[in-house]
Amino acid sequence: MFLPAQMLAFALSGFLRLTIGFDIGLSTKCVAIPKEMSMCHNIGYSEMRLPNLMGHTSMTEVISKSTDWQHLAQTGCHPYARTFLCSLFAPVCLDTFIHPCRSMCAAVRDSCAPVLVCHGHAWPDSLDCDRFSADEDMCLASLTNEYKYIHKVLPKPACQTCPAVEEFFTHKRILEVFCVNNFAVRVKLSKKRTISGDQEYNIECQVEFINQGLLLPYDTQNMIQQWLLINENCTQWMTRSHRPVVYLIVGNIEESIVLVNQVYRWQRRDSQLILATRKWKHHKCL
């Protein structure tokens, strides 16, 4: 779902623009990336510099300050979000500090700032892109064009007002709803506590139907997972207890934007819903 941040490989393959680097002083040290920083695991290295590029001097501070950013990285708001954030919070142990390039910062900011706004936060001054080097300096650059060439660019989930959970009527009414939407995905939601005490979600998706060009069920599952992470206030409301709950999420893809239009509680006794999903395969919309 997210592009691995293979920063050491970047250095070997020309991602780093060579010039004079920022020398690491004797006050820094190499430490293992803590298990609480899951977003910086499996990124090509296992040790980081401390203090880091955010000025955090203790591992307790690093873990505390990076928690909210880990949630942002999980949303998939930009393919290089993890690379950018980990280069700051958990910089690789080399002879010089490798800063992200200004262009990488701007690309991540432009894609991820709307997600922060959806969560009630603005892009912080501490990540002002003007503080980072231009691309001709020694810095970590993104390869946006190459990424688009290799990987399919999917529609982006929108930050939106939570649709009310609706009640089903007859299977005919359900089929009418299906006819005016692009997708229907059954979602099993549950929440858990992380090692650091924060709340995370288990999101299991099963696509009931998709009617949008070349999108595959796997693509649609990823989009709905991202929608639920971006619209976390909705996900919190839908998982008010720790008991797993199942919903049917129905929506449209308009101008490369994923919009959820209806949310239905899926319960075993909803025979009309089960009948509708079976009949859909042979149903002809008017």
From TrEMBL:
CDD domains: CRD_sizzled, NTR_Sfrp1_like. Disulfide bonds join 40-86, 105-129. Residues 1-21 form the signal peptide. One of its GO terms (cellular component) is extracellular space. Keywords: Developmental protein, Differentiation, Disulfide bond, Secreted, Signal, Wnt signaling pathway. GO terms for molecular function: Wnt-protein binding. InterPro entries: Frizzled/SFRP, Frizzled_dom, Frizzled_dom_sf, Netrin_domain, Sizzled_CRD. It is found in: Secreted. Its main location: secreted. Residues 159-285 form the NTR domain. One of its GO terms (biological process) is cell differentiation. Gene3D superfamilies: Frizzled cysteine-rich domain. Residues 25-142 form the FZ domain. Belongs to the secreted frizzled-related protein (sFRP) family. This is Secreted frizzled-related protein 2-like. The lineage of its organism: Eukaryota, Metazoa, Chordata, Craniata, Vertebrata. The gene is LOC106722763.
